[in-house]
C-alpha cells in the first residue's frame, strides 16, 4: 500500500490526461467516448465524481462514478501501468464507495470486458459479483460482464488504508 498517494476530486486541468489514459488503458480498440470535453463536464457535474490518485502531484490513477437515484455506476477506473498492483485501484474504489454511501446510495454497478481477466479478478476481490454477461456490449465481438455490489450487505472493498 502506497501511503504517499493522495486521493481526491480531479481538477478540470486533469481532464486531458485522464481522457488520454482512458483511451489507452480502458477504451483501446473502441470508439473514444471519454474525451477531454466529456471528462471536463463530468468533473463539473453534481451527479458524477471523478476521483484522482496522485503521487507528488502527478496523476497515477483515476475513477469516474455517476450517481443515479438509487444506485451508482462506476464508469471508468484505471491505474497507470507503473503503479498497478500497489493497492491504488482498491483505494480509488473504496474512496468512491464511501462517497456513494455518504450520498445514501448502497448499490454500485459496473461493467468490464469479458476478456479482461485482471479487472474481473480485481472487482471480485473487492466484493463485486458477476451478475450477467452482455454479448456485444462494447462492440460486436467485445462482450461485457456486469458486476454489482450492495454496500449495505457486502464488507468494505479491502481493509482500511
Ligand atoms: C484493474 C486495475 C484498475 C486494478 O488496479 P490496481 O491498483 O493494480 O489493483 P490493486 O493493487 O488495488 O489490487 C487489488 C486486488 O485486485 C486483484 N488484482 C489486481 N491486479 C491483479 C492482477 N494483475 N492479477 C490478478 N489479480 C489482480 C488482487 O486480488 C489484488 O490484491 P493483492 O495485490 O493483495 O493480491 C488496473 O489493473 C488497471 O488499471 N487496469 C487497466 C484498466 C482496466 O482494466 N480498468 C478496469 C476496467 S474499466
Account of the protein in words:
Residues 5-152 form the N-acetyltransferase domain. This protein has 161 residues and is an alpha+beta fold. The protein has one domain (5-150): Gcn5-related N-acetyltransferase (GNAT) (Aminopeptidase, 3-Layer(aba) Sandwich), CATH 3.40.630.30. 28% of the residues lie in helices and 37% in strands. It contains four helices and seven strands. The protein has helices spanning 15-26, 36-44, 88-102, 117-125, and strands at 5-9, 48-55, 58-67, 71-79, 107-113, 129-139, 142-150. Helix 1 crosses helix 2. It is globular. The relative contact order is 0.15. The mean pLDDT is 94. Coenzyme A binds at residues 25-26, 76-79, 84-90, 112, 116, 118-119, 121-122, 125.
Provide a quick synopsis of the model:
The chain has 161 residues and is α+β, with helices and mostly antiparallel strands. The chain has helices at residues 15-26, 36-44, 88-102, 117-125, and strands at 5-9, 48-55, 58-67, 71-79, 107-113, 129-139, 142-150.
Q: Which fold name fills CATH's third level, the topology? A: Aminopeptidase
Largest sheet: 7 strands, mixed
Strand content: 35-45%
What ligands can be seen in this structure?
coenzyme A
Overall helicity: 25-40%
Total domain units: 1
Could you say what the CATH architecture is? 3-Layer(aba) Sandwich
CATH superfamily: Gcn5-related N-acetyltransferase (GNAT)
Could you tell me how far the N terminus lies from the C terminus, measured between alpha carbons in angstroms? 8 Å
